[in-house]
Design a protein that fits this description.
homodimer; 271 residues; alpha+beta; D-amino Acid Aminotransferase, Chain A, domain 1; D-amino Acid Aminotransferase, Chain A, domain 2; 2 domains; 9-stranded mixed beta sheet; 5-stranded antiparallel beta sheet; 7 helices
Chain lengths: 271, 271
């Protein structure tokens, strides 16, 4: 992993041990797919970062400077670009200090391992997502629920885990949003009480004319087709969920082709 | 703030930008009252750290080495000692890596400003605490709810804010536990669904023979006496909550004297 660390406008060598990201997860992040040194979905990632920073009251670096640094780090390559933004260094105690310099860190990572073209094998997680409307939708750095859920299995033949809220609604996978096909309609869980408003989720919802709907476990298991999505991996058909299996669905393949046409990083992944 | 940073058994100069504490709040912490270079409640803090690390699957440094470093940092002084323990550096993605070296950071802070001897002025926070039994009780580093709640006011005449769960039960203050006196019985909210199992809470519960009970807002407002407590400030009587006020209560003063007798750092604070 290569990383560039900034405090306010300054490039710095080290992260302050008093950084509030470290103390409280007091920050937000974006995980972006890079393609030949560019980040095709940069504008929507940046908008989501701004929304999260606004809710948390985080200072934000200058966008054009941030983008310049991102492209410099990528240096023409592909892969995954992560941007982590924290409130910066602060004293002890929860009170958010005023006039802090934000810490922002760009890091460049390899692409994740390819998944089977016919679809993912997924499982149900026992760890649930708590209901918190004040933070729902944001890609903030309080992610222990996802860490616990992803730690539930080490079997490499299982690619992802589905999570329910503490009230029993199906919400998402540990690192992806969820869509299901029911009676010819595409549905995805709302993210106003928990879950993350994924960048690829927004794209897929628009592309499919999908509706938001609360889903129970049985709604997923009885669906005609299921896919996961995120901004790094794109559209990921689900082939198996416990004893249930699905054959590749033409509408999911069509959506993959449409994404490939709109976002060049995903073009190479469509057969 | 002075700090010592370690990765596994090694003292290090810098925090890895890939630290999972920074990425996901993937860690736990303890905030301890130091007295003349010692930490009188070290054993109970360490036990809670171990419990949190066990639930999250975090590696833990050697206790005697940690304690040696703590005492070295304190160097005979008073104040607040914070220990932050994270899962250490890891790649991108929620899956907790195996065989990581924990990051642990000791920092030494001044004592917080003294509060009025007759009691705190507190308010209700609008930010609620989500229900998450898997994390409840732990002093983990996912603290955005507390940051948002503490950010609700900047009026320095208000000392603390009380928080309810998303289900409406009163749970705690942003950085303290809560006790109320009702019909001669001391009650404190349970911390098995949200909230932190405070070190001073455990001490006060035992000292008072207090019971755990779900409390509504009206139960606090109608209480005969109210106090907050934490391991840094000890027992903090509440004098005002909105329009409601309480006169100093002899049982709270008695509890403060008892704490002063058992924990030398609090001896100087009792009139």
């Amino acid at each position: 992993m290569r990383a560039l660390v900034f405090s306010g406008a300054q490039r710095v060598d080290a992260i302050d041990p008093a950084d509030r990201g470290l103390a409280y997860g007091d920050g937000v992040f974006e995980t972006m797919r890079a393609h030949r040194g560019d980040v095709p979905w940069w504008p929507v990632h940046w908008q989501r970062l701004l929304r999260g920073a606004h809710v948390l009251g985080l200072p934000v670096p200058d966008e054009s400077r941030a983008r310049d640094q991102a492209l410099q780090l990528l240096d023409g390559s592909d892969g995954v670009l992560k941007l982590l933004l924290t409130r910066g260094a602060g004293g002890r105690g929860y009170a958010p200090p005023v006039d802090t310099k934000p810490t922002w860190i760009f890091s460049h990572h390899p692409l994740p391992a390819a998944t089977p073209a016919d679809g993912l094998a997924v499982r149900w997680c026992g760890t649930s997502l708590s209901i918190q409307p004040a933070l729902a939708g944001l890609k903030h750095c309080n992610r222990l629920e996802q860490v616990l859920a992803r730690g539930e299995w080490s079997d490499t033949s299982i690619h992802e885990g589905l999570m329910c809220s503490t009230e029993g609604d199906v919400v998402c996978a540990t690192a992806a949003n969820l869509f299901v096909l029911h009676d010819g309609r595409w549905l995805t869980p709302p993210v106003d009480r928990c879950g993350v408003a994924g960048v690829c989720r927004a794209w897929a919802r628009d592309a499919l004319g999908a509706s938001e709907a609360r889903l129970a476990v049985i709604d997923v298991e009885a669906a005609d087709a299921v896919f996961l999505c995120n901004a790094v991996r794109g559209i990921l058909p689900v082939a198996r969920l416990g004893a249930r299996s699905w054959r590749p669905h033409p509408q999911v393949a069509q959506l993959q082709r449409r994404l490939a046409a709109e976002h060049p990083a995903f073009a190479t992944e469509v057969a």
